[in-house]
Amino acid sequence: MTSIENILNNISVISVTGDTSVVISSVEFDSRKVTEGSMFVAVKGINADGHQFINQSVAAGASAVLCEQIPENPSCEVCWITVNNSAKALGEVASNFYNNPSLNFNLVGVTGTNGKTTVATSLYNMFMKLGYKCGLFSTVCNYINGRKLATTYTTPDPLYLNKTLADMEAEGCDYVFMEVSSHSADQQRIAGLRFAGAIFTNLTHDHLDYHKTFDNYLAAKKSFFDSLTPSAFALVNIDDRNGRIMLQNCKASHHTFSIRTMADFRCSILECGFSGMCIKINGEEVWVKFIGDFNASNLLAVYASSVLLGAESREALTVISNLNPVSGRLEAVEGNSEISGIVDYAHTPDALSNVIETIKRLRQGNAKLITVVGAGGDRDKTKRPKMALISAQGSDKLILTSDNPRNESPEAILDDMESGITADLKKKTLRITDRKEAIRAAVMLAGKGDVILVAGKGHETYQDIKGVKYHFDDKEELIKALETKK
To answer: What is the pTM (predicted TM-score) of this model?
Structure first.
């Protein structure tokens, strides 16, 4: 609990009408959660405008309302605050309400189309192994010093985010690592936070259902770097041409990493197999349990960030050699000694291309690659044909199947995917809507030495159909199918 005056500290407001000494019991942007003494922040969202629920919030007992436009006949018993951007103000208000927790530890954000989870999670594991208390916000799970928290979005809403950051501060966290999605940057969910560093992994085709154009998607990522202070560091992958763009007009100190060209931090792959690879980072060789060029780049980002945060180079490399891949990221699945099973979260054209090319380089002799993949419903439709084409081109056999159809027809999604497959590739493509049956079919088609890739869902343990999440785990289904074939 704190006063309205404290909540508005350092926030740019247009007008304030009412008593700012009033103590606020909570901050809410969902009118259904407003209780006596709450501050209601009216945010113009994608599906609804919070301004429509101002009167409902006042009736529920709100002591203050922060909005962009005050309604007609406003109650004189309420403190009214107007701002230009209530979404941004919500983040700043949330940070003030929870006493600005991000000022009291090193908060590092990771953004990019692919690699966010691996980099953020590996950094969390790195600094935990180095003996520090740490927090993590990721797509897979949130953690406070090893304690698991539930997660719904890659980057949570500002209230949950700041409350959890306050909990991390209370538990003595020295470092917190966070995936920063393009949605969260665009929707100002990270407004009010002070970052000690930002990492850019790459930028490829994704989320155009939301951003509409690639330029908008790029601008959302760049806005995160534009918000950094001079005391922070900005670390970017210059193997992606957009890395340099992130640094333009960025006030933080600039640092680069690359596996292809000269950079502040360099890495090359010396040897690679399904069990791991030997890489050279800034002249030092180290064996890691990860595979693939993209993971070499991810681990380089982890190493570089660790050094920039004060870790000793040799110690960082030692810890990296003991890190395990994130669940569902190019994860080997055992169940049949004659067939290799791999589960991966790849759900964009670029991610699929990277995983498929990595597997093809590692397979032995005449081993075939059989890929099972779908595409999520209620998401960017333009990537579906591209995903299917890349999968068909890189695989010896492709099975298109359902992913998380959500509120769309699985058949319509598969129609979109199939539209991208050229006539010459259709002969090696099957369409099996039931995901379990698709995985079983892939195993039945596989022979000795072959590799099965099940892509798209990775760590997820559910299938989202018409708003209901049914239990479904790609790893479980692949293991069962492989064991049945023994």
So the answer is: 0.84
Distance CA 2, CA 23 (A): 5
Residues 6 or more apart in contact with residue 353 via CB below 8 angstroms: 390, 394
Q: Using one digit for the tens of pLDDT, what is the confidence trace for 64-98?
A: 999 999 988 888 899 999 999 999 999 999 999 99
pLDDT of res. 365: 87
* Residue that is written with structure tokens 């497959």 in the block: 421
Burial of 32 (0-12, 13-18, 19+ CB in 10 A): exposed
Residues of the chain with pLDDT under 50: 207, 211
- In the chain the domains, ranked by start, together with CATH numbers, are 2-97 (3.40.1390.10), 101-320 (3.40.1190.10), 331-484 (3.90.190.20)
What pLDDT does 350 receive?
86
Considering only the C-alpha atoms of the chain, give the largest distance between any 2 of them, rounded to a whole number of Å. Answer: 79
Backbone phi, then psi, for 267, in 5-degree steps? Answer: -145, 145
d(CA 156, CA 94): 12
Q: Residues 223, 185: contact at Cβ < 8 Å? A: yes
- How far is the C-alpha of 184 from the C-alpha of 87, rounded, in Å? 11
Does residue 39 contact residue 28 with C-beta atoms inside 8 Å?
Answer: yes
- Span 306-327, pLDDT tens digits: 999 999 999 999 999 999 988 8
pLDDT at 154: 62
Query: What are the b/e assignments for 388-426, b being 16+ CB within 10 Å?
Result: bbbbbebbbbbbbbbbbbbebebeebbebbbebbeeebe
Q: Is 314 exposed, middle or buried (0-12, 13-18, 19+ CB in 10 A)?
A: exposed
Whose CA is closest to 118, among 282, 277, 292?
292
